[in-house]
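User:
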Amino acid sequence: MTAPADTGSTIIPCLRYGNARAAIAWLERAFGFTAQAVYADGDIVYHAQLVHGSGMIMLGSVDSGGEWGKLVVQPNEINGRETQSACVIVTDPDAHYARAVAAGAELVIDIADQDYGGRGYACRDLEGHIWWFGSYDPWQETGL
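Assistant: Predicted structure:
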């Protein structure tokens, strides 16, 4: 499989956190993200962009009063379940795993080689969002 032609489309996961400022610091420390932009007023983060390699996530503070906020719930509001999660491709999943565990990430699927290729693990962040980190890169794999 080869990477598709550049169509100008990019998919960027968007998350919300009860304490977005703490989440940004934790995502940097535990997962290796870098804050590219943070638009905030005091403890309220209106919009933040965090990068990891060539990928990005956007996040903001929980706001149940706005149009978007009425559509989204947090894991702690639905018994720790998720309706979606982010997958991040990393070059060294074992080193990433060690970093995340040292920062207190809650493992939900331990690191292992995967039947479809690559090696990876799943964990929860400090507010319960589920993440997958692994070396499998569907843009680089062939024969699927």
